[in-house]
Design goal:
Number of helices: 1
Distance between the termini: 58 Å
Helix content: under 10%
Strand order of the largest sheet: 1-26-25-24
Shape: globular
Radius of gyration: 20 Å
């Protein structure tokens, strides 16, 4: 009995040591003061200022653009939540993540299997791509980003790939293996969104792998992060994810990640260093952070999918 007791004690000590080392190595502490929730607006409905499952968000100057998913439209607000205009009801089927480049709004249209492009005032200009599984074709695109030279990066949710296209839709290259979900061997698992920094670094929200991949301008992986070794280990610790649904690079150059099932946003430096986490955790509806964008003044806007509203967060001081 004494031998068994000593063995049990030894195992307990080892588990605690390993757990402590794991926590210290893979659970970083915040490097900034906490963000505070400054404002929320919206409710479920189809009137101006209401939403039915908002799924994407982008900021340009003092205007906030929201993909109002099941209302098949884009709504635009000032940074205080006042409704300015809406558009896209005739052109969009299910708008998802968006990006703004060269004063145009690029929208991943989830059910139309295309990228739709609008002026910032709402004029429909063109579509890019068509339904299909070949190069330059889309099946359920979840997000789009546009680089300074006009190249597009499109996250193909069910095709398990991210494609790079020229502005006219010509195929350049892809990451992931078409139609094959996976964690290793260059595969992705339901990528949901993409973002591009000013220096051309591509950030892929590898959604169901619970990780972010950073790709350099030559198409090579710079780094990846999310849980131990970025190996599809989900969790609620700092720097870990439970399904990523949106990613953006703010004016600050930092990377913001919508951590959907953890009901929060996480903030990182471009090399994956954890900086902060914030979000609404309640006993009510979950899935409160599906998309995120930073404004020029450091405010962060979050699409709250479950509560059909928008959150405005202010950085700590």
């Amino acid at each position: 009995m004494k031998a068994l007791l000593k063995l049990a004690q030894w195992v307990t000590v080892m588990v605690l040591i390993i757990g402590g080392i794991t926590y210290l190595v893979w659970v970083p502490s915040p490097q900034e003061s906490a963000y505070t929730l400054a404002k929320t607006w919206g409710s479920k409905g189809d009137s101006a200022g209401q939403f039915n499952e908002p799924t994407g968000i982008a900021v340009k100057g003092n205007e906030v653009f929201v993909s109002d998913g099941r209302n098949h439209r884009i709504q635009v607000f000032d940074v205080n939540g006042n409704a300015l205009r809406q558009f896209g009801a005739k052109e969009l089927e299910r708008p998802m993540n968006m990006s703004i480049q060269n004063n145009e709004l690029y929208v991943a249209d989830y059910f139309a299997d295309q990228i739709k492009v609008f002026s910032l005032q709402g004029e429909y200009r063109r579509s890019i791509g068509k339904p299909g599984k070949g190069p330059g074709e889309f099946t359920i695109p979840g997000g789009v980003a546009v680089s300074n030279n006009g190249d597009l990066y499109v996250a193909g949710f069910t095709q398990q790939r991210v494609q790079q296209l020229k502005a006219d839709g010509r195929f350049v290259q892809q990451w992931g293996v078409s139609g094959e979900a996976g964690t290793f061997g260059g595969k992705l698992r339901y990528p949901t969104d993409v973002a591009v920094s000013k220096d051309g670094t591509l950030f892929i929200a590898d959604g169901y792998n619970d990780r972010v991949l950073a790709i350099d301008a030559n198409g090579e992986i710079l780094t990846k992060w999310g849980g131990p070794f970025a190996m599809n280990i989900l969790g609620s610790f700092n720097g870990w994810f439970a399904t990523i649904t949106g990613i953006s690079v703010g004016p600050s150059g930092n990377v913001f990640v919508a951590d959907f099932y953890n009901d929060r946003v996480q903030k990182f430096t471009p090399d994956g260093t954890f900086l902060n986490a914030f979000g609404i955790k309640t006993t009510g509806p979950t899935h409160t952070s599906i998309a995120v964008a930073e404004a020029d003044d450091g405010s962060v806007f979050v699409a709250d999918y479950a509560n059909h509203q928008i959150q405005k967060w202010q950085p700590g001081k």
